[in-house]
Amino acid sequence: MDITEKALKAYSNIENQRLKAIVSLLIKHLHACIKEMKPTDQEFEFAWDFMERMAAKTGPERNEFLLLADVIGVSQLIETLNHDKPGQPVGFALVGPFLRADAPFRERGAADMSDDTPGARVRISGRVFDFETNTPIEDAILDTWQAATDGLYENQEEAQPDYNLRGRYRSDKNGTFELIGLMPTAYPVPTDGPVGELLRAAKRPPDRPAHIHFIVSAPGYETLITQVFVKGDPQIEDDVVFTGSDNMVGDFRKDGDHFRLVYDFPLRRGVSTMPKAPIPA
Ligand code: DHB
Ligand code: FE
User: How remote is the CA of residue 16 from the centroid of ligand 2, in Å?
Assistant: First the structure.
């Protein structure tokens, strides 16, 4: 019996059938990968040392393993397999590492940032509605977050007030919402860890195109996790985490000294869930 068969047999008594399937698939495909790759002893040492160094960069505020999954396309692939359906008008996006739990509820039309936050404002309005019936969804919760113009999220920068550029808003009886955000700008993912080494080796720019995150949820509807990119931004194609796509672009229009964006969120009937927030309250 070769090692692959022995290993598969050794894990064949797992009672949880889903867990058994996952472990078996991992053994089957990892063994096939190793047989094709034929890593040297030194390469194997490099691999586990790389993981040790990833662990050293991982804590409550940052997860280098999640970042690796993001930059090799695994996170967005999982999101797409689980949620994207043909004809999906607004795409699903990976959550990313910067969702923080318990963002404050803010009034309709209010800004989600302090007055002295630098950068152009964007007034965002739109409608949350049932994708099949087109009826408005009242009391949907829109949880939004974005980086400051220097590319840093509030938790990464002392100078920003707590929960700056984060907030939760509710839709009204017509399903409409309104808020003031910041005109988003591009910025890099953290590159001071092993994942940064990989990106440099691949000559991949570490930038994420400008975006604003939204999670739109309502009882009885599948939660829509998405990001809004800026229409016409050439960087969308080169998103380091493979999220930017045609069904996530907003038409940000200049209006005097600020911008305006009208953006609707269609929801499908389903189970309302909330993702685990990588950053605790
Ligand atoms: C990642 C996602 C983001 O939304 C972001 O702003 C930075 C990094 C990521 O998936 O790694
Ligand atoms: Fe982001």
Answer: 36
Testing ligand 1's pocket by substitution, the residue of 208, 213, 236 carrying the most ligand atoms inside 8 A of its CB is: 208
DSSP letters spanning 58-83: -BTTB-HHHHHHHHTTHHHHHHHHHH
- Nearby residues of 25 by Cβ (< 8 Å), 6 or more positions away: none
Average pLDDT for residues 201-230, to the nearest whole number?
Answer: 97
3-state secondary structure at position 180: strand
Give me the residues near ligand 2 (ion), CB cutoff below 5 Å.
96
Residue nearest to atom 7 of ligand 1 (CA): 189
What confidence tier does 1 reach under pLDDT thresholds 50, 70, 90? Answer: confident
Residues with CB under 6 A from ligand 1: 67, 70, 94, 96-98, 189, 208, 241
Candidate of 76, 182, 189 to mutate for ligand 1, largest count of ligand atoms within 8 Å of Cβ? 189
Q: What is the pTM of this model?
A: 0.90
| Ligand number, closest to the Cα atom of 195 | 1
Smallest CA separation from ligand 1 atom 11, residue:
67
How many Cβ atoms sit within 10 Å of the Cβ of residue 45?
11
* CA 240/CA 73 separation, integer angstroms: 9
- Residues 6+ positions from 73 with CB-CB distance below 8 Å: 241, 242
Structure-block tokens of residue 117: 């936050």
- Nearest 5°: phi and psi at 82? -75, -30
CA distance linking residue 121 with residue 109, whole number of Å: 12
| 70 pLDDT above the threshold of 80 | yes
